[in-house]
Every structure is written in structure tokens, then in C-alpha cells.
Amino acid sequence: CTENYAEIYYNRPEVQRAMHANHTVIPYKWTACSDSVFDNWNWRDSDNSMLPIYKELIAAGLRIWVYSGDTDSVIPVTATRFSLSKLNLTVKTRWYPWYSGNQVGGRTEVYEGLTFVTVRGAGHEVPFFQPQSALILLRSFLAGKELPRSY
Amino acid sequence: TKEQEEDRIKALPGQPKVGFSQFSGYVTVNESHGRSLFYWLTESSSHSPHTKPLLLWLNGGPGCSSIAYGASEEIGPFRISKTGYNLYLNNFSWNTEVNLLFLESPVGVGFSYTNTSSDFEESGDERTAQDNLIFLISWMSRFPQYQYRDFYIVGESYAGHYVPQLAKKIHEYNKDCKNPVINLKGFMVGNPEMDKNNDKIGTITYWWSHAMISDASYNSILEKCDFTAERFSKECNSAIYDAAADFGDIDQYSIYTPKCV
């Protein structure tokens, strides 16, 4: 329900003043998700597959990590695994459980050029549902290190 | 810079006392159309924010990359109370590790706006990536302390499009630049849209393997749907619609979480 709280907070004039927002008096309310942007989206300009870009950026040497909250059914973990499998990446570090505190945080596999991570018990918004695990994930990503194998 | 100081947030209504700086405001990405994107920077709460990387967060949608999700629900330092009148601290905020830059994008999302109404009808991946690159270049001239700083992009859902597309734009821009100021090191995406066909097959498989739909619904979708098609057939859409009735009243974004009434 937290989206509802944001709708109240960001529509308060004093909040908008403090944030230097809406000085042109936009003729619609602040909303978390814009239906009009979604409804008018130019889908012809939306590629069916992002995989060619991933390949290009892996080749360019960028650090690329993909994570998946495993209780999301909108873009679930199987969707991401099926898509990633089409990249035909070489496995560098085999699938293993990683730890968040004294619990399994999820599973991970490190490929050449890309790291895949699942986050146990997290829905679509991973840092919202599993904040501690998400912070561990961020630290490992920034450090370019594999996720912890033990607690 | 003077512009930077003008964007400084003294304090947000109802916020607890904090030891980090915040800035927010607009960056114009298209002068003639009057297209401006709204940003919110929460600097790192560490003792040395100037040594910490810059991380740009983008949400999905399309149409949902607003400060509600990344900033207020997920990785930002503040959570909003039930009444919508007070803020409290997120103990796991990512600004302990990085300087967090939230961007409301494209125009029409959150506080971002355009003076040209036709812009609303022309939003798409390409223009969003281009506008976001222009935003970053302009923003870094307003905040020169972040030029050459390690820079990462993170996002979720439809940001599986936004994030790699922006990364590619930056990569190409940097290749053409003698002295690139955007020091892109990498990106991370969560539950991302990556590949329509495989995403869809994987989704249907998840529904079945997590006992969300019946065998009959699963087989019906597999029989009637060709996810490689440009447009899904009526029969396919109908099979998916019928299968969704099996879900019951749940939150599809987190299948074991009670739905918000």
C-alpha cells in the first residue's frame, strides 16, 4: 500500500515547494505510475529483445548483473533464466546458494561477462521485499565480488 | 555551482534529522519543446560521500520511473508514513554505499513535464534513452563533482529496456568524446524485461510450476499462443485471461503477499 502514501505526500504543496517541483503548475496530479505514458507508448520503438544490446555491452567490458526476486509472477525468475540462456554465456562460477545473514539469500551463477542472482522471498521490487539481501547484493555488485558463500 | 545550490533541499516536510545532503529540481532535455526531467539526488550518508560512486535508478512501466518506487519504496533513505505526512528512515538505504540519483522519466512521469502536448503521444524507448543521456550530460555540468566519478545504472522491470539502452547511448557517446565525463562502470537490472518470447514462456512456466494455474490453463496457453508473433492472437489473449482467473485475489508482483485493499 506504500504507493498510496506516496500519492498523498508528493501532492502536498509544501513538499513540492521543498523539492522545487511543479513550479509550472502541471495540469495533472503527481502519480506514481502514469497511465497516459503507458497507454500512449510507442511500442513500435520497443525492441522485442534486448539480448543483442547485452551482448554488445558485455563485449565492451561493462560490469553487468541481473537479479530476480523469486516470488514475482509478472517477470518471474524462469522468464529471466530462459532469456539469459539465449546469450549462451560460459559459466565461470557454478550455481551456488549465497547468504544474507544466517539464511540463504538466494542462488547465483557467474558467467563470463554477467552475474545472475536470485533473491529468495522477494517480489518484483526486490529491495522493498528483502532490503537486507538487496543491500548485500549492491555491495557485492559495487565491489565486483561474488556473493558470500557462507555466514 | 549556483544552480546546484538553488536545487539544494533544506529539509523535506516531516523528515527526521539526517547527515547527508539532498538536491532536486529540473533539467531541460529539449529547449524547443520545453521538455524537462525531474531528479532527486540523495548524497551518501557515509563520512566521505565524495569517494562514493554515483548510482542512477530507473523504474519500469513504461510510465512508472517515478520517485515513488525507487526512492520511497525501495532504496532511498526515506519511507513515507501511512498518513502521508511524515518520513522515517530506511535502515537499509543504498545511500550508505552510493550517492543516489533518482530520475522521473520520460516526461509525463511524476513531476517531469513538457510544454508540447504531442510529446506525450511520442514517448518510446529511443527518445527516452536519448533524453536520459542529455539529462545526464547537463546534470553533470550542474554537479561537476560527479564528473569522472564511478557511475552505475540500476533499475527493474521495464528498466530492462531503459537501463541497457541508456548504457549503450553512454558507451557510444563516450567513444566519440575525447574527454568523457560519464565514467560508466556497469549496470544491474532486477526482474527485467529482456526478450519478449522467452520472458512470456518463462512466465507461463512459472505460473504452472508454482501452482498458480491449472494444467488445463497451462496447456491451453501453450496450444494457442505464439509468443514470437508481433501481436498475440485473440485466442491467445483469451487463454491468458482465462488462466488469470485461476490466480484468485493475489498480488501478482509478490505472490505470497496479502493484496493491498
Topology overview:
The complex is a heterodimer of chains A (151) and B (261).
Chain A: H1 2-9, H2 13-18, H3 35-39, H4 51-59, E1 63-69, H5 77-85, E2 91-100, E3 103-111, E4 114-119, H6 126-129, H7 131-143
Parallel strand pairs in A: 1-4
Antiparallel strand pairs in A: 2-3, 3-4
Chain B: H1 2-6, E1 22-30, E2 35-42, E3 54-58, H2 68-74, E4 78-80, E5 87-89, E6 99-104, H3 125-142, E7 150-156, H4 159-175, E8 183-190, H5 196-209, H6 215-224, H7 234-247
Parallel strand pairs in B: 3-6, 3-7, 7-8
Antiparallel strand pairs in B: 1-2, 2-6, 4-5
Helix pairs in contact in B: 3-4, 5-6, 6-7
Protein described:
The complex is a heterodimer of chains A (151) and B (261). By secondary structure, chain A is α+β, with helices and mostly antiparallel strands. Chain A is 36% helix and 21% strand. Chain A has seven helices and four strands, in the order ααααβαβββαα. Chain A has helices at residues 2-9, 13-18, 35-39, 51-59, 77-85, 126-129, 131-143, and strands at residues 63-69, 91-100, 103-111, 114-119. Chain A has a four-stranded mixed sheet with strand order 1-4-3-2, sandwiched between helices. In chain A, β3 (103-111) and β4 form a beta hairpin. Chain A is globular. Chain A starts with a helix and ends in an 8-residue tail after the last helix. Chain B is α/β, with parallel strands linked by helices and 261 residues long. Chain B is 33% helix and 19% strand. Chain B contains seven helices and eight strands; from the N terminus they run αβββαβββαβαβααα. In chain B, strands 1-2-6-3-7-8 form a six-stranded mixed sheet. Chain B has a two-stranded antiparallel ribbon with strand order 4-5. In chain B, β4 and β5 form a beta hairpin. Chain B starts with a helix and ends in a 14-residue tail after the last helix. The relative contact order of chain B is 0.12. The model of chain B has no long low-confidence stretch (mean pLDDT 96).
